[in-house]
Amino acid sequence: MGLLGMILAAILGAVLIAIVIVKYLPLKLRWIASILLLFLAVYLGFKIYNGVMEPINFNNDKVKRYSKVVDNLKIIRDAEVKYYEATGNYTKDKNLLIKFVDSAKLALTVTKTIVETVNKGGGITDEVEKRVIDTIGYEPVLKYFKDRDYKNMFKVPGLKGVQYELEVGTVEKVQGLVVPTFMAKTPKKALLEGMNESLVKQELEITATDQIRGEYVSVGSLDEVTTAGNWPPSYDKKSIKKD
């Protein structure tokens, strides 16, 4: 029964008790009815309070659960981005990605423009500008994951033995240009286990832009070229505040 239904039932009950008091109950027994009405009022107040607070508490609790999940997804995303910078692809091999963060190095490059003299024949020359990329050194990938628990980044917080799903694919960005993609995700339903079933159902169908939409908490996409997550900016602000 919803909050409105409980309120209507309580009001109806109060009206019936009042009718009984007025028409049928002797004066000396009306104190019993008064106590019943008092209990009814307390019960109604309790139900109204719970009805108002339950969605608020649900929202606060889900944000706490989601925030930990989002933090791990950000680490996975950053690791995939660095792997892409080094190899030109993403990977679905979780152990490989952890090992990559542990031991790989990224090339440090500088781009400069040089002018070359090109002999076009017949004594004719022309000066042509060219962009040249030089490697000036290397830096460890681990540098970008200092104080971040990347070795456990695939473990879903709060769910023992559960890991994020990790997939890779490709998208044809423009005709003839195929671009790698990746996606890491975990179902929201498992994260909300033990919470109000009606509110969980609403959460899985949510479409508001200030909420995590859909049935998953995810980062990246297999259908478009993006490394963004499906969470709203408020989750990024929470991470900044925590850091």
General description of the model:
By secondary structure, the protein is an alpha+beta fold. It has helices at residues 3-23, 30-87, 94-103, 188-191, 197-204, 233-242; strands spanning 105-121, 124-140, 165-174, 177-187, 216-221. A hairpin with a 2-residue loop joins strand 3 and strand 4. The model has no long low-confidence stretch (mean pLDDT 85).
Low-pLDDT residue intervals, each spanning 5 or more residues: none
Provide a count of the helices: 6
Cα shape: elongated
Structure summary, number of beta strands: 5
Strand percentage lies at: 25-35%
Query: Helicity, in percent?
Result: 40-55%
Mean pLDDT: 85
Biggest sheet layout: 3 strands, antiparallel
Q: Structural class of the helices, strands and pairings?
A: alpha+beta
What is the distance, rounded to the nearest whole angstrom, between the alpha carbons of the first and last residues?
A: 43 Å
The H-and-E topology, N to C, reads as HHHEEEEHHEH
Question: How much is the radius of gyration in Å?
Answer: 31 Å
Side-by-side strand order of the widest sheet? 3-4-5
